[in-house]
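Aggregate trends can hide what the representation actually does to any particular protein. For completeness, the protein is quoted in full, as a sequence line and a line of structure tokens.
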Amino acid sequence: MDAVVQVLASEGVDTVFGCPGAAILPLYQALEKNGTIEHLIVRHEEGATHMADGWSRTTGGVGVAIGTSGPAGTNMITGLYTALADSI
């Protein structure tokens, strides 16, 4: 997970949006250890994808949404499709 955080930082990511869950907690530990990427918590994974999409549209940077295993993947589809359809 440290490598994932290093790649995010090397791409200029300074903010991520997500909903913590058991399977993704090692990534959150790596984010905390790194300390250069801010995490904004959301109430629902779909909101994270829309926030990441909006972030990318307004800043021109990489928008990152984080979800855990299980239904988070299906919850994120609408926001991911929105970004894909608009080439974001």
